[in-house]
């Protein structure tokens, strides 16, 4: 459990916070360890989790989850974890013949330029909502990751409309029952206009932004990178002005340790 | 200037607040909402990016009419649609004036607050939005039953291209561009503060561009002042730095007075002097003289070739 990160974010690991839109961005490094962190945090907190997986298969999340002490297969059987296999859907879209038709595939937009991500939104809604169409208790929507959609050809506008509707469904205000965690890649060495536009759209929606990047001084064995936490909470003007925090991290076998810059165990 | 526009002492028909990811415009927007609710008879809030509650804290809600573009802008939620509620949908072209006319309570002077223009600009080109905003401002009490005193719109500078920004900037009477926040907190300790650049166009034609510092109190009231650049004693430093190069030398570089006078009288070569003329050099006269020595092969014709021209 990433206790230091939880303390910085103000997240209670026993009662994960509601109404948060957490945006994770990574640049030239892999920020998916934070996805696994939030997945395990919210499952251990007893929330219902809907995982929209576009980058990895279920087996991957299960394997990492076991290392973090969260058995995902059991959670899925119990119904606590709803898994949407975006990888399989996107592959089906590309390999199906026109005779079979797109049918009910939620990622119809990959082949049909006139379509939007509305079918995907409808699928997410059926997974997280009860019959009345409202959220069934505290629910987390975890999207891993949005840049895959952009690289498959979906326009940044369609992805941002989809995430807007997800936000309205899950966490329109800070008092809502739901929360969203999503990952967008933001590689500094790649000039990807669509991806940068998508990142900026998501940044406006988000309440917390975690930017993961490598150290500017290069590769180090003891410090794998740094995370900059930015709070975009503009509700309360009497809040303190320190809205940005920087942490360095090291990825270990079963944990990731976070520490203030310069206080790595190798240095002290 | 920002404070004057907010309080209404400086008249401005369209105020655009340009923000970016790093410098959020929502606190300034919130201040505009609460101030307009105080001084206008009615405020129409078109909210598309945030729920209405974000901007209405501390404001007089009875004067605010909310037009919801947040919950279902693209009409994906078929079953939950309430036909009586006035919702903005991005499927049809933006018509702000139409929404205003549909509200049951018609007061004469209204203010319109739009958060933000980005969803409209994503679905329609810039000129359509500009036209819709112009129609808002041209509404008259006699013909449309409503008159708009001020429009405040949010604009995300990093999500749109320069041509859209330029078109909106041309239309706006006040353009507030939010910049880097102040480094150290103000004496008050709490509240938001930041820098901005305000471009204000008066009806007289005068354009005022100012860099300002603004502060927002916990009660959502905004104060601003012009940012003064620090005055550094630059001139004195330069004077002190002038070192006399002829000092501290082992040889003498200074001139006595007679030597200075002799130096001023030295005749420089290749300069024209009227006192002394070399016999070979031609006299400098304004007309200029041409000396033509024809060669053996030259056919020098005394006739003027332009003689037969008749104008």
Give the strand order of the largest sheet of chain B, numbering strands 1, 2, ... along the chain: 3-2-4-5-1-6-7-8-9
Order of helices and strands of chain A: HEHEHHEHHEHHEHEEEE
Shape of chain B: elongated
Please bin the fraction of helical residues of chain B.
25-40%
| Mean residue pLDDT of chain A | 84
Distance between the termini of chain B: 66 Å
What share of the residues of chain B does DSSP label as strand, in percent?
15-25%
Please state the CA-atom Rg of chain A, rounded to the nearest Å: 19 Å
Order of helices and strands of chain B: HEHEHEHEHHHEHEEEEHH
**How many distinct beta strands of chain A?**
9
How would a textbook summarize the main sheet of chain B?
A: 9 strands, mixed
Strand content of chain A: 15-25%
Any idea what the radius of gyration of chain B is? Answer: 36 Å
Mean pLDDT of chain B: 80
- Helical run tally of chain A: 9
* Spatial strand arrangement across the major sheet of chain A: 3-2-4-5-1-6-7-8-9
- The number of helical runs of chain B is 10
Uncertain stretches of chain B: 182-188
- How much helicity do the residues of chain A have? 25-40%
